Amino acid sequence: MKNRTLPIYFYLFFFIAVGFVLIIGAQAKDQKMVVGNTVVNAPPKIVYEAICQYRNCPSAHRKQLSTSPDGGTVKENMQGVAVLGNVQVIWKEIGIPYTHVDYSMISSDKFTTAFGSWTITPANGGKSTNLELQAFIKADVNIPFAAEITRSNTTKDVRGRLATIKQTAEAMVSKAAVSQTIAVKSK
Question: Alpha-carbon distance 44 to 98, whole Å?
């Protein structure tokens, strides 16, 4: 009897250990940041200003709630997020002018954790900018492949945010160029 008990305990311990490793591995998998980048045909100062303007962007359902010298608090209502539907998030943004903006979730009705950063790097002698966005979002969803679905949503969101900032910054440069041309012609 004693000989049979030892293998049972061994197998029980083995399966518990394997299960623990799989759970830890799944949690570590969830911890990956989504990273996207683009080249913006605008100087870093304009790109930084575009990110700051994005805090108040009705088309992106974003509204700045408060300001501080280095950032602010933003309420965002994300529409049609896969599996989750509409998601409300309050973000805290802190920026270092023309180089970096960090953001973190203060509260959300459906996310448990969310944070990230914009990194602004001059390129082409300061005439353009390499813009990188890192984002991590974890949702309170208990369905199969929840981490993969959330990561896919986050990847799509990062691409959309990068495209919005690129478009906004490049439009700001074009508008400034047109204003300069008009000012020169009127002299």
Answer: 5
Pairing outcome for strands 62-68 and 128-139: unpaired
- The pLDDT tens digits for 19-41 are 544 554 454 444 589 999 999 99
The SS3 of residue 77 is strand
CA 120 to chain centre: 14
Q: Are 21 and 103 in the same domain?
A: no
Token digits for 24?
A: 């830890």
Q: Which residue has tokens 């305990």?
A: 9
- Expressed as residue numbers, the domain containing 9 is 1-31
Same domain assignment for residues 23 and 100: no
Considering the domain architecture, whether residues 139 and 163 belong to the same structural domain is answered as: yes
- Of 112, 26, 93, 8, the closest CA to residue 53 belongs to 93
* DSSP for residue 99: T
Measured between alpha carbons, how far is residue 74 from residues 16, 37, 60, 170, 185 in Å? 44, 23, 12, 23, 41
Q: Over the stretch 106-141, which tens digit does the pLDDT of each residue have?
A: 999 999 999 999 999 999 999 999 999 999 999 888
Say what the alpha-carbon torsion angle 168, 171, 175, 180 is, to the nearest 10 degrees: 110
Distances (CA, A) of 131 to 50, 92, 166, 175, 184: 12, 20, 9, 21, 32
Which CATH number do you get for residue 129?
3.30.530.20
